[in-house]
Specification:
Layout lengths: L2 H6 L11 E5 L6 H18 L3 E4 L18 H15 L3 E4 L3 H8 L4 E4 L7 H9 L3 E5 L10 H8 L6 E5 L2 E2 L5 E2 L3 H7 L5 E4 L5 E2 L8 E2 L4 H11 L3 E7 L13 E2 L3 H14 L1
C-alpha cells in the first residue's frame, strides 16, 4: 500500500494486504444519518480488518432535474463530514465540482474526489492537487482506462503524487453503463491505486422521469469481479433505507447487506 494511504489509515488496525473501502451515503442528509452509517461501516471494517474511508457528498451539483435535492448547505455538510472523521478516527472524502471548491473542501476532508464527467477539467485537477490532499479521479464514462494517464499527469505536474483512479463504467447507449474490467488492469499500469465504484457503475442515467435508475442487485457481481481483477479498493454507496435516500437511492446498497458482501470479497482476495 502506498505511503500516503498508509498515513490515511494510520489510526486503524487493518490487514495491509486487504483491499480498502470507500463507503457512505451519496449525500449528507442529516447529522444523525451520516453518523449512523459511518458507525456501522467503521465497526464492520474494524472487525474485518479492512481500511475504511468515510464518504459523502456535501453538495450534489450533478442532478438530473432542477427540483432534485442538492444538500443542506455547503459548510454545514462539510462540518458534519469532518465531525464523523474526528469522532471515529476515519479519513474522509467528498467530491468537488469547480476549482474554487477545492480549497474549501480541503479544510474538512482528507481526499478530494473528482467526478467522472469532470475528469478532463485541467483547472479543477490542478486546484485539487495544489491543496496537497489525496486526489481521487473517477474515470469518465466516455474514456478508456489508458487515457486516464493524462489526468494523473496533470496532478503530478502540480507537485502532488497522491493519486487514486476510480473505474465507474462506460456509457452504453443512452441509458445504461457497462464495466470493462480491462480498465482496472490498464489504470494500475499507470502506477497508482485503482478503485472500483460498485454502485455508480450500475446507474441507468438519463431516464425520462428525471430520476436516475440503477441495478443494485448486481453490486455483488461488480464487486466480486473487481476484486478478482486486482482492484486495490472498492467504492460503495450505502444507506440503511435506500428507498428513502434523497439522492441515488436506486443504485445504493442497503446497509444491512454490506457485511455478507465484504466477507465474500475477503475470501476472493485471499484466493488470489
Amino acid at each position: 500500500m502506498e505511503k500516503y494511504l498508509q498515513e490515511l489509515f494510520a489510526k486503524q488496525s487493518y490487514d495491509p494486504n486487504q483491499f480498502f473501502l470507500i463507503a457512505g451515503p451519496c449525500v449528507v442528509e442529516s447529522a444523525n444519518g451520516v453518523m449512523e452509517i459511518a458507525e456501522k461501516v467503521a465497526s464492520l471494517c474494524k472487525e474485518l480488518a479492512i481500511p475504511y474511508v468515510f464518504k459523502a457528498s456535501y453538495r450534489k451539483a450533478n442532478r438530473t432535474a432542477a427540483s432534485s435535492f442538492t444538500g443542506i448547505g455547503d459548510e454545514k455538510a462539510l462540518k458534519l463530514i469532518q465531525a464523523v472523521g474526528k469522532a471515529l478516527d476515519l479519513p474522509t472524502t467528498t467530491d468537488i465540482h469547480t476549482a474554487e471548491e477545492a480549497a474549501l473542501a480541503a479544510k474538512y476532508v482528507d481526499i478530494l474526489q473528482i467526478p467522472a464527467f469532470l475528469c478532463r477539467q485541467t483547472d479543477l485537477l490542478m486546484a485539487a492537487a495544489k491543496t496537497g490532499k489525496v486526489v481521487n479521479v473517477k474515470k469518465g464514462q466516455f474514456l478508456s482506462g489508458p487515457s486516464m494517464k493524462f489526468a494523473a499527469e496533470k496532478i503530478k505536474q502540480s507537485d502532488n503524487e497522491k493519486i487514486i483512479l476510480t473505474e465507474r463504467g462506460n456509457s452504453f447507449g443512452y441509458q445504461d453503463l457497462i464495466v470493462d474490467y480491462r480498465n482496472i488492469t490498464w489504470m494500475k499500469e499507470i502506477g497508482v491505486p485503482v478503485v472500483m465504484d460498485c454502485t455508480h457503475s450500475l446507474q441507468q442515467p438519463n431516464q425520462t422521469s428525471g430520476i436516475t435508475g440503477g441495478n443494485p442487485q448486481l453490486i455483488e457481481t461488480i464487486a466480486k469481479a473487481a476484486i478478482a481483477t486486482g482492484a486495490d479498493g472498492l467504492f460503495i454507496e450505502t444507506h440503511p433505507r435506500p428507498a428513502e435516500a434523497k439522492s441515488d437511492g436506486a443504485n445504493m446498497l442497503p446497509l444491512d447487506l454490506l457485511e455478507p458482501l465484504l466477507k465474500k470479497l475477503i475470501s476472493i482476495r485471499k484466493a488470489i
